[in-house]
Amino acid sequence: MPSIFSECNKLKEGYDKCFTTFFQQYVNSEYRHRTLQNPCKYLFKLYKDCVEEGLKREKPFEIDLEEMDSGNSEARFLPLESTLEQFQENARHIGIIVSDFTPKSQEVLNQKIHTMISGLQELNSLKNKYSDIRVPLEVLDSLDEGKNPQMYTATCLERTLLKNKEVNGKIELYRKLHAKLLEALGEEMPAETLLYRQNRNLIPSNSEPPRET
């Protein structure tokens, strides 16, 4: 799917390709992570900056980006992201140990299980800090399908833009229909039409009805 702004298409394609490759490796039990950092983070930042510049310039949805940033700063989510990344990595390690289990692995497995329990407790302690955040179920569906969850917002914006164009088109059609109906009624019932237009403040109230000939 192309970006909401055409000038950001190449950046989006580059990030999508990078993330897809990374995600497929990440879910592979044989993959060994050298770092917990997302290797596509820089590409995502470039694409994000491009989209934000487009939103500031064209304002298709009248979004106040500064207001959004002030209410949901990235620093607020850093503890949660770090805990989730560590928990996810620990769960992956447990899967590797269990898939190739030996008696010598028991002690390491026990340590990993205790670490996972501690991670769950830490996540539970953090939940009240994010009680105002609502995650759409579609994001979880995207994860299950192996799609990039960070593109969900862009997809929603694109859908909203298309819906906005559709609604604006319908509004314009209704306006034209309204004008045609008034024109036809004015020919058949000029006095009543004039009264209607005056009551709707479509014309000045001191206008005189057309005289019948």
Automatic annotation (TrEMBL):
The keyword Membrane does not apply. It is found in: Nucleus. It comes from Bursaphelenchus xylophilus. Component of the Mediator complex. InterPro entries: MDM35_apoptosis (IPR007918), Mediator_Med10 (IPR019145). This is Mediator of RNA polymerase II transcription subunit 10. It comes from the Eukaryota. Component of the Mediator complex, a coactivator involved in the regulated transcription of nearly all RNA polymerase II-dependent genes. Mediator functions as a bridge to convey information from gene-specific regulatory proteins to the basal RNA polymerase II transcription machinery. Mediator is recruited to promoters by direct interactions with regulatory proteins and serves as a scaffold for the assembly of a functional preinitiation complex with RNA polymerase II and the general transcription factors. The keyword Nucleus applies. PANTHER family: MEDIATOR OF RNA POLYMERASE II TRANSCRIPTION SUBUNIT 10. It holds the Pfam family UPF0203.
